[in-house]
Amino acid sequence: MKFGVVVFPGSNCEDDTVFAFRHNLGQEIVKLWHKDHDLQGCDFVILPGGFSYGDYLRSGAIARFSPIMNEVIAHANKGGYVMGICNGFQILAEAGLVPGALLRNIERKYICSNIYLKPQSSSTLLTAGLEDRAYKIPIAHGDGRYFADEDTLKQINDNDQVLFRYCDESGVICPEANHNGSIENIAGVTNAGKNVFGMMPHPERASDEALGNIDGRFILEQVIQVLA
Amino acid sequence: MLKQNPPYREWGLILMKFLASIDVMPIKEILDPQGKAVLLGLKNLDIQGFGDCRIGKHINMEIEAADKATAESIVEDACKKLLANLIMEEYTFELTAI
């Protein structure tokens, strides 16, 4: 199993992602430059957090047309695994690889804090093996308010495509825990094929004991336990 | 890929130049917190009478094309593929010859 993390101009979580996969999870991981057209044989591609292209126009809108995205989209369409974290999720949404869009946070503020997530889908690689509890994961975003129209929302709910919802410390999914105002507290979704994952929170920033929280590692480990 | 403007210059044709005035607005189903904040600010200034307020983007771009219809189809394409995200935004534009 080989992992690859795409580096766009303005990405800033690629090193955190490499550290989490290489040191915390013991996996082979390489960086992929956005101008290349080669996934270097990676089985699992990660689009990291950051501010690709300065978030100009809309978050992820320009990165979505980076050269390597042709290969990433082809990989996803063939059933290959792709995961987008934070800005990576925004890029996936702009590329149409996951349903919905990410809007400006409801209170208009950039939010950087630890929040709690409740795993939802019982049929995806990323969430099926997680415990039914609140996972403490950091968020750091200004445009994280998940939106999907009524039909799309029904479809992703019916098809078990919601990965995570924001919840409180005890695992209750309530309006108070919905910091960015996402529709139905949605923090992450997958595509219909369940091979593309997008989430706003940063599991890679909660993967090392030195940081005092390894809930993120439990999430990333799912991928390895099933695929390795 | 965006539609290419054919190589009119090489063919020796004279191109027309237009200013595309493009508005991109959040769709009505979406709550616009920026608009709400501006309304609140106006209220605090005691400037009265405003109702619903929505904030979007205005983009001015120059475009060269053989005629207005061609320019329109290129701008339309640019709006659909990049300038607006049709899940959350809608667009309108006007072309003026310059």
**How much strand of chain B?**
25-35%
The general outline of chain B is elongated
Can you count the beta strands of chain B? 3
Look at the helices and sheets of chain B and give the structural class.
alpha+beta
Order of helices and strands of chain A: EHEEHEHEEEEHEEEH
What is the first-to-last residue Cα distance of chain A?
Answer: 6 Å
Overall pLDDT metric of chain B? 91
Strand arrangement across the biggest beta sheet of chain A: 2-1-3-4-11-10-9-6-7
Radius of gyration of chain B: 18 Å
Low-confidence regions of chain A: none
Major sheet: arrangement of strands of chain B: 2-1-3
The main pleated sheet of chain A reads as: 9 strands, mixed
- H/E element sequence of chain B: EHEHE
Classify the helix fraction of chain A into a percent range. 10-25%
Q: For this entry, what is the oligomeric state of its chains?
A: heterodimer
Largest sheet of chain B: 3 strands, antiparallel
Q: Terminal Cα separation of chain B, in Å?
A: 27 Å
Rg of Cα set of chain A: 16 Å
Number of H/I helices of chain A: 5
Helix segment count of chain B? 2
Mean pLDDT of chain A: 96
Q: How would you characterize the overall build of this protein?
A:
The complex is a heterodimer of chains A (about 230) and B (about 100). By secondary structure, chain A is an alpha/beta fold. Chain A has helices at about 15-25, 70-75, 85-95, 150-160, 215-225; strands at about 1-5, 30-35, 45, 80-85, 100-105, 110-120, 135-140, 145, 160-165, 185-190, 195-200. Chain A has a nine-stranded mixed beta sheet with strand order 2-1-3-4-11-10-9-6-7, with helices on both faces. A two-stranded antiparallel ribbon of chain A has the order 5-8. In chain A, strand 3, helix 2 (about 70-75) and strand 4 (about 80-85) form a beta-alpha-beta unit. Chain A is globular, with a radius of gyration of 16 Å. Chain B is of the alpha+beta class. In chain B, about 30% of the residues lie in helices and about 30% in strands. A three-stranded antiparallel beta sheet of chain B has the order 2-1-3, covered by helices on one side. Chain B is elongated, with a radius of gyration of 18 Å. The mean pLDDT of chain B is about 90.
